[in-house]
Specification:
369 residues, alpha/beta, six-stranded parallel sheet, two-stranded antiparallel sheet
Length: 369
């Protein structure tokens, strides 16, 4: 039997080679899970989000439960601090919600038009401090616990033989502004005051790049940097607006990640088919296109398969409503059709009501067992 360190090294090499579009012994599988691990290990969601030590154990035990996984998507729940990304209040199980209800982003207008001027005048770091403490319900106790114990949580996962797929994270400025202003008002803002909004997005982008580079200094064996951009879908904007307010900043973020020598992992929500050609700008083997199933994975393969790794895309509906045979067959077909440079994964996060046997079937398809 292989030791945890031997498994760690084997899995790390398999994922790294796949990202570089090199042939490996088999397709790696890296499910993207959070709340599912709580349900699968009989942990209340309230404990999962409010007790990070219990959350870390659920991630580890849940990852071991589902089979021969090649890397962990995370090490504990970040639900309690999601407001720092979306500039919105978060409703949590065990706090505003029943113990086993999934957390929710409570989007309402918390930012004003004057806040654009404040960010321009004082910078994003100073604005964040005031915003988090006075306007939204960031749980600073959990934030401190994550900062203090995050390194140990990472180590606990690695000690079980699992590399950590996301060695760092960086958010596109659209998520902050469309959350704090609301999506509807943000769309009006980029029409009514485009120069000001663009300037603010540039400030946020530069600050986030700086923070990302600092955080990577403390990351052990980072495989990728998770690029979050939930509100960046090109179907939400006309092409000119998308190029100016989304792509320009996404390209700058991506180039900064690539400069660090770490893989840029695009977490792609919704349908990006009309923007696929833009991603040809980046050097071969430096990025991963992680799709949630809304973008046709075969079109991604056609456009980008020769340039970057593709990750996905067993959809939530299949994992919750399908049978193990259906999931296994779909996953097996993906592996066959995608070929070299493919990481099998769930399409976005595994839902909390996914059937454990279905998730196991997805993982088993990678090894053919």
């Amino acid at each position: 039997m292989k030791t945890a360190q031997e498994l760690y090294n084997e899995r790390m090499e398999r994922v790294k080679k796949t990202i570089k579009l090199e042939k490996t012994d088999r397709t790696p599988v890296v499910p993207f899970g959070d709340s599912f691990f709580a349900v699968a290990t009989d942990l209340k969601l309230s404990d999962f989000v409010l007790n990070l030590e219990m959350s870390n154990k659920a991630f580890i035990n849940g990852t071991k439960l589902i089979g021969d996984v090649d890397a962990a998507s995370g090490v504990c729940s970040a639900a309690a601090i999601m407001g720092t990304i979306f500039f919105s209040n978060i409703k949590l199980p065990g706090r505003e919600l029943p113990d086993n209800m999934l957390w929710q982003i409570d989007e309402c207008q918390s930012m004003t038009i004057d806040d654009y001027d404040t960010i321009i005048d004082k910078g994003f770091e100073e604005f964040q401090k005031d915003y988090y403490s006075k306007r939204i319900n960031v749980d600073f106790k959990i934030l401190k616990e994550l900062i203090d114990n995050g390194t140990q949580f990472d180590k606990n996962m690695r000690n079980e033989g699992y590399p950590i797929y996301m060695g760092g994270k960086i958010s596109h400025p659209v998520d902050y502004l469309s959350g704090g202003r609301t999506m509807a008002k943000f769309i009006l803002d980029i029409r009514r005051m485009p120069e000001k909004v663009d300037a603010v997005m540039e400030i946020i982008t530069d600050y986030n790049i700086k923070v990302m580079k600092e955080e990577l200094k403390y990351s052990v064996d980072p495989l990728s940097v998770f690029i979050a951009m939930g509100r960046a879908c090109p179907d939400f904007y006309n092409p000119k607006l998308w190029e100016r307010f989304i792509w320009k900043h996404l390209k700058k973020i991506t180039e900064a990640v690539i400069e660090t020598g770490i893989t840029a992992n695009f977490h792609i929500d919704a349908n990006w088919e009309r923007a696929l050609d833009y991603f040809k700008d980046f050097p071969k083997g430096t990025c991963v296109f992680e799709t949630d199933g809304m973008t046709d994975i075969y079109k991604i393969k056609e456009k980008l398969g020769a340039r970057m790794c593709i990750k996905g895309d067993v959809q939530a509906a299949k994992l919750t409503l399908g049978t193990p045979d259906e999931v296994y067959n779909y996953s097996t077909q993906l592996i066959k059709d995608m070929g070299i440079g493919f990481i099998l994964s769930s399409g976005c996060s595994i839902p909390p009501n996914a059937k454990v046997e279905n998730v196991k079937a997805m993982v088993a398809a990678a090894s053919g067992k």
